[in-house]
Amino acid sequence: MNDERHPGAGEAGFDRPDARDRFLVAVAPDEQAEQLVRLGKRFADAMDAEWMVVSVETPAMLELGEKARNRRVDVLRLAESLGAETVTLDGPSAAAAIREYATLRDVTRIVVGESERAGWRFPFRESTAVQLMKARRGFEVTCVASREPPEPPSASREGVTDQRAIPWSRYAAGVPISIACTALAAIMFPYFSLTDLVMVYLLGATVAAWRLGSGPAAMVAVMNTLTFDFLFVPPLYSLAVTNFKYLVTFGVMLAVALIIASLVASVRAQTRVAGARERRTSLLYGMSRELVATRGLDALTRVAIKHVAETFASRAVVLLPDGQGRLAHPQAPPAASGYLDGADLSIAQWVFDQDTPAGLGTEALPGAPAQYLPLRGSGKVLGVLTVEPSHRRRLLLPEQRHLLETFAGQIALALERAALAEEAERARVAAETESLRNTLLASISHDLRTPLAVIAGASSALNDASTPFDEQSRRLLASSIETKANEMTKIISNVLDLMRLEAGLVLHREWQTVDDLVGSALDRLTLQLADHPVQVDLPPELPPVYVDGALMLQVFTNLLENGAKHTPRETRIIIRASAAETYVRVVVDDAGPGLPGDPERLFEKFQRGRDEGNTGGAGLGLAICRAIVNLHGGRIEAARRPGGGARFMFTLPVR
């Protein structure tokens, strides 16, 4: 292990916002990658440092076979399991990308493996470790030698043994390009110099590199050089060269063509890498954006299935556990074309219990037609994502596997967010229920205490044989018992009515006239309104309303009783109504003391007006009115009456 620290590195730590060391482990898809990751883990644990594992997607990585690319995915997964932050960069140079990222993240040490030195490029290209050591950017570079001796070139690069077949069609397509260059050069030959013809052949090599790749471009460059010598350089129609300067021309021409071909092919490969990264990012962003905007587990699973099925040309299903931790298919399967209804629940249950992927492309049950991925939350497995591709290769490619794992991570985050939201909602409802229960008990106990005291006192007096009562006194005591019992019945009835309304009472609608409803309410409240003159102003052309008569009668009764209870004697109460196209608007005015600062609060449960200490009731009358009006599709509100007093307005549907 070689450790080199360059000038300026010692001062870097003083500029960082925190004093903790930060390690960066740079890995390539080779045999040494796992060794580097485990070494980085030991470094981080020993020095209590943050650490990250970085892989760079360069154009050269596209030429690697599936085995090498699979190793890269496995190494990144290993790093994540060991607690590292994993990052994938892209660029033409691994050293440049690592250096820029290390500077951005204030890295104090870079751990890099010993680069391969075999091959024709070694004398002309410095290794990644050497380039990083020469960077002088304020970080240490630790170069780790491989534990294993270098293997022969034929076996050291596993990517060579399993790379794709040679694209002979592209090589064949290079022949017409060379022929076209020769035809154009033949036309130009009588009028232009040989130097101009060389430019035509260089253009052909460039086009071949851009359209076909570096291999076919090199073939075109060689063909162009030989054709140029054979057809245009004296002696014509011979590869013999009589002038030494033409050998230099041929050498430079071939070298320039190969260099241009290599550069253009590199740019083309970088474009492919950037395009693949952009596509993955776009797919992830699209799913994440829709998951964030979705509420409810059922809706989340539908969104997840849709995106997974479209991205991987597959069928998918998200299996969630029940209360006993047993996975099952959704009771109401999503209406989606990509839904998978034949997932093996035994495999899925094993994946859920063991927190280990299984099925297609994994070490466990690789012969299964689908892949089963655990959806890992912060503390437990939340479910299993099952994906059955239309073509097995779609999930066997390492890039696709990594993308699917990233999708699974996003789905798990969304499910965890939904579960936490449901838990928070349950906690909120429980807290509100407890608060409502306490408020109800406090309110009812307060409002029942006075009637109970009167009833107890009057009944005790009537039961006392030692105290004689005349007929009038006895009737007064009995009347007070009846009155207070009715008050208690009214309070309890209001509570029960509100509970029925909030539970979703079924309306029994009939056509009713507002005049009849007002008249029935006045008849019911004859005693309560004895000291309050009531003015009814209803136009004769007022249309009937389609309402539940019993419930709407209660609305009028509560509003009139509220006016009588909270206004002084002889205070006038006015009932008016007007018709619109689809509703009737009813207004109940009084000239009492008015409303509190926020009239809307009066419609909340157990809310009272300003003089709550002088009047009875549990504060449920207006809450019941709002519940009934809302149930009919109307709206009720309160406001301060111009000139003083209170105004309650509500609407009733006419059809």
What do these coordinates show?
Helices cover 52% and strands 15% of the residues. With 655 residues, it is an alpha/beta fold. It folds into four domains: 2-151, Rossmann fold, CATH 3.40.50; 168-271, no CATH class; 297-425, GAF domain (Beta-Lactamase), CATH 3.30.450; 501-653, Heat Shock Protein 90. Helix 3 (66-81) links the parallel strand 3 and strand 4 (85-90). Helix 17 (514-524) crosses helix 18 and helix 18 packs antiparallel against helix 19 (621-631). The longest helix has 66 residues, at 398-463. Its EC number is 2.7.13.3. InterPro entries: GAF, GAF-like_dom_sf, HATPase_C_sf, HATPase_dom, His_kinase_dom, HisK_dim/P_dom, HisK_dim/P_sf, Histidine_kinase_KdpD. This is Sensor protein KdpD. It is a multi-pass membrane protein.
Q: What is the architecture of the largest domain at the second tier of CATH?
A: 2-Layer Sandwich
- Any idea what the CATH superfamily of the largest domain is called? Histidine kinase-like ATPase, C-terminal domain
Low-confidence stretches: 1-17, 117-122, 151-163
Q: At the first level of CATH, what is the class of the largest domain?
A: Alpha Beta
Count of alpha and pi helical runs: 19
Helix content percent band: 40-55%
Quickly count the domains. 4
Number of strands: 18
> What gap, in angstroms, lies between the N and C termini?
87 Å
User: Could you say which structural class the secondary elements and strand pairing correspond to?
Assistant: alpha/beta
> Sheet bearing the most strands, described?
6 strands, mixed
Domain Histidine kinase: 443-655
Membrane topology: Multi-pass membrane protein
Organism: uncultured organism
GO molecular function, one term: phosphorelay sensor kinase activity
